[in-house]
Amino acid sequence: MTDLATNTFDRVVERYHAALRAFFNGDPGPVIQMFSQREDVVLCNPFRPFARGPSEVAAATEQAASHYADGKYEPERVTAFATAELGYTVEIERFTATVGGNEGSGALRVTTIFRLEGDGWRIAHRHADPITTPRPVESVLQT
Q1: What contacts 83, CB < 8 A, 6 or more positions away?
Q2: Is residue 84 classed as helix, strand or coil in its secondary structure?
Q3: pTM of the model
Q4: Domains in the chain and their CATH numbers?
Q5: What is the pLDDT of residues 16-44, one digit of tens each?
Q6: Nearest to 44 by CA among 114, 126, 140, 131
Q7: Of 105, 126, 131, 104, which Cα lies nearest the Cα of 114?
Q8: What angle do CA 126, 13, 91 make, to 5 degrees?
Q9: 133-to-9, 23, 26, 103 alpha-carbon distances in Å
Q10: For residue range 60-114, what is the model confidence (pLDDT) as tens digits?
């Protein structure tokens, strides 16, 4: 991958982080604008199993952002990789915010896949969950 492609991907990730800062303050708009408009776009967030397609992803993002206010967000990079057309980040998203009316802090384990589309880099997939520490094996069982 060329330095130009790497720099372009790094800039889109920085823009994404800025969009997430707005999200943790209740504004879903900048994040929604970064998602792909293709039918194969998928969002898995902590509030529902998954959303598929641009309409569901936008609605799920709006609903999720409505839970947050007065947020501060800081990403912790685990790894990232990009080619000329596809890239991903694995991060821990640490935040303090009012969530559902309660003040607190939290962290999400997040994988985001970006792809280069006709109008620039877009998010094709995002998976976020609260698993940031080891859990007992029994935690995978549903009771």
Answers
A1: 1, 5
A2: coil
A3: 0.91
A4: 3-133 (3.10.450.50)
A5: 999 999 999 999 999 999 999 999 999 99
A6: 126
A7: 126
A8: 55
A9: 29, 24, 26, 21
A10: 999 999 999 999 999 999 999 999 999 999 999 999 999 988 999 999 999 999 9
